[in-house]
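Hi C.,

You asked whether I'd gotten around to modeling the 448-residue construct. I have! Everything is below, sequence then structure, no commentary in between.
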Amino acid sequence: MDFIPHDDKTITEMLNVIGVKSIKELFQDIPNDLIIEQLNLPSGLSESDLLREIEKLSYKNKIYSNKFLGAGCYYHYIPSLVDFVISRSEFYSSYTPYQAEASQGFLQAIYEYQTVITRLTQMDVSNASMYDGSTALAEAAIMATIITRKDIVMILEGIHPEYEDVVRTYCWGQNIKLEKVNEKELHTRLNKDVAAVIFQSPNFFGDIEDGVKISKIVRDNCTNCLVIQVMTDPTCLGVLIPPGAIDIDIFVAEGQSFGLNPSFGGPGLGILAAKQKNLRKIPGRLIGKTKEIEGQNQGFILTLQAREQHIRREKASSNICTNQALCSLAALAYLLALGRTGLKEVATQNIQKTHYVKSELKKLPGFDIINKKPTYNEFLVKTPNIDLFIELCKQNDILPPLKISKYFPEMKNVLLVCVTEVNTKDSIDKFLEVAKLISNLKEEGDKK
């Protein structure tokens, strides 16, 4: 579609209607030092020239055949069915439908997404999706304070650092106090003013936390305090105990692993599910099924819209103004394509392949596995000559693991290694060969 800008005559007419003399006066609130008088843009290109230019730019991208990077955004196999479904013309607008009841097909898709998420998590209710895992977690924290009418949220160590930053930003804006604690001191730090305790499992370091134990500590030491669980790769639900089975009040996850490519870090999919009693405080949107007033035909409607566009701002439980409709559709297609047995197979391969890499690295002199708990698809390993290890990975067409000191400066020479079902035996062997080379170099250096 061509973009046809307003001509001078149309602009003048619009300014006259609102009683403004010029465009500059219209935007007078913008400081003068921020105003750009003219952009230094190149002249336009024909379609064929533009395609050539974009193709030339794409050559700057480095596509690695083997990937061992996770840390919140994961490489999983995506069935061809997923892209086929979300590429249909009636679906490929990623934005939430306005005049939603006119979009019955999309409403049904979102309703089915909610159904699949509640069955997978064994939670009572799921909303129609949110932006991503981090903002969904922040919304969950705010939701907890609204439900309990308290203003302190505790966050256990092991939360993804970027998730913690987002939660802190949201809580700061809402005058909510955020306290960081470890599991050992949790029972002594809990008090009657705590609205919720947030923990991540599997956590940022790959550890599978004991959700039953954490929930019991909270219930035993604090009344009217919610337990919030978050995870960044929910494929683990193929084998791990679902949150609904361990007395979790609000469950949050990043749904990118469900049929979405990592791309350049997005888009993501915010999954949020809760207990039935907290239904009316759930942020975002909720799709429901109904029947005609007169007749038996079924239809789908927006049952709940707890956001500031639809109710008084001071009454709104969320400022999220949309949902990730296309991304939730991709997740729905992915989960339906895999089914229960398929997701279990994905999770099983993640655990088995990770355990194999972990056990092989453990055999190498100079390598030390830091995790003390069972892990899911990620683990910490201390390695000699970490910068050379990363460089050799790149030279061998391997996307290297995360250098954890990016987030934790005190953790020197530590990598967060991620292994998923897409890592073949050949790619794993290739990664281990690099590790063996680093180990041999260390041994030779020690002998000298």
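If it helps when you're writing up: The chain has a mean pLDDT of 92.

Thanks,
B.
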